[in-house]
Design brief:
Elements lengths: L12 E5 L4 H18 L2 E5 L2 H4 L7 H24 L1 H15 L8 H11 L15 H15 L7 E4 L2 E4 L12 H12 L15
Parallel strand pairs: 1-2
Antiparallel strand pairs: 1-3, 3-4
Helix pairs in contact: 3-4, 4-5
Pfam family, one: Rv2466c-like
Protein name: DSBA-like thioredoxin domain-containing protein
């Protein structure tokens, strides 16, 4: 049985992510597996790349991604507001399997599939164009920026009160490395003098 907030014994973990960020998709799947393996609770929160990139002159491919970010951010916000965190997280993973793993576009069919998969009423599909949700999305996004203490992209991970951008994963780690990677990040997070570690990105 998965741990709950009431029986938390491990580290306090919060993850802010934009649902359309491919690196966050890898991080989210890895962190979920680590939580199931080790036994800790994840506080899942939204952030938004469309908000982060407001006012920037982006190439067409990135502008398209920002449109997806805005629409899916609203959809997840509506699910979170009306049904709770567990439902939007389930919707996120249902979305990611189609959007990332099958390269399906954000359209009415994908939205309907996600809502049907998690058993959420179909009326929420209209949320993708509901600007009244933008403040909810913006507030959650800003909470992640505040936790980090500076401007940062997706994902942002906070462990026991210490937040950082990343980890940026170009692919899902091997199952045997899941717990070891989490333990390494916990150690870095607990080291006050640690600030940054980076290496060149190589193809997955």
């Amino acid at each position: 049985m998965a741990p709950t907030e009431n029986d938390r014994t491990g580290p306090k973990v919060t993850l802010w992510l934009d649902p359309v960020c491919p690196f966050s998709w890898n991080t989210a799947r890895w962190l979920r597996a680590a939580a199931e393996n080790i036994g800790f609770v994840i506080d899942w929160q939204l952030m938004n790349l469309a908000v982060l990139n407001e006012g920037r002159d982006l190439p067409p491919a990135q502008r398209a991604r920002m449109r997806d970010s805005q629409q899916i951010g609203r959809l997840m916000a509506a699910i979170a507001r009306e049904h709770g965190a567990a439902e939007w997280v389930a919707a996120y993973f249902a979305f990611g399997e189609r959007y990332f793993d099958r390269s399906e576009p954000v359209d009415a069919n994908l939205v309907a599939h996600v809502l049907m998969t998690v058993g959420v009423r179909s009326a929420i599909a209209a949320a993708v164009s509901d600007t009244s949700l933008d403040d909810f999305v913006r507030n959650q996004h800003q909470a992640g920026q505040n936790a980090l203490g500076e401007t940062g992209g997706s994902p942002i991970l906070r462990i026991d009160g210490r937040a950082f951008f990343g980890p940026v994963l170009t692919a899902l780690p091997d199952a045997g490395d899941t717990a070891a990677l989490f333990d390494a990040i916990v150690t870095l997070a607990a080291t006050p003098q640690f600030t940054q570690l980076q290496r060149p990105r190589t193809p997955a």
